[in-house]
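Lecture 7 notes: from sequence to structure.

We start with a single chain of 239 residues. Read the sequence below before looking at the structure.
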Amino acid sequence: MLEIKNLDVWYGGIHAVKNLSMSIGKGEIVTLIGANGAGKSSAIRAVAGLVKEASGSVTYIARDGGAVSILGKPPEYMVKMGISLSPEGRRILPHLTVEENLTLGAYSRRDKAGIARDMETGYSLFPKLKQRRKQKGGTLSGGEQQMLAVARALMSHPDLLMLDEPSLGLAPILVDEVFGTIEKINEEGRTILLVEQNAFAALKIAHKAYVLETGSITLSGTGAELLQDPKVQAAYLGG
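Now the structure, written as tokens:
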């Protein structure tokens, strides 16, 4: 579904991502793990069209089956192509209600019945959001805000859902809940690219995984393989 080849990302003089190549098959959960500052978010932001200084190639298989080069295209183009990002830090709109935040996630759509259906799907995935649908986003707990960010990303009805650090700052019990929901979303047919510092939680659910260190991929394999890899255990899983 997505093929990244020789991706380089720069922030001024900082070479954040170096010659990164990875692939995501339709229906897979693919995770990119690594320490803080490894370049994970820079890579996913480049795919989402949020980074201007990027080179290489990103090829996406569109809904009509055609291959499209998307690197450098604006974020609104990505959404229309069926790619959605739940960003690091949640980035919800705190002064709007849960329902208003979700409605904004569907800004590019005109199918009212489909929007209503996807909103109910979001509420079924995250029942707490339905209880708080008229509540301002800023009054939600951190875990609830993360749920809202993921549900909002689903409102564009994406084929490829990209999640940037969905467990950041969450209590362990909420981490389990969020990752369980990611699996449910995948089981419903969506492909997922997951960027995550919590290597154990990410590798447990990933079909395929890549380890990023100082901007470069150093290891790759299935999630199960990397869970058993001594280098990954030593660096990310506490030995």
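The mean pLDDT is 93. Keep this in mind for problem set 3.
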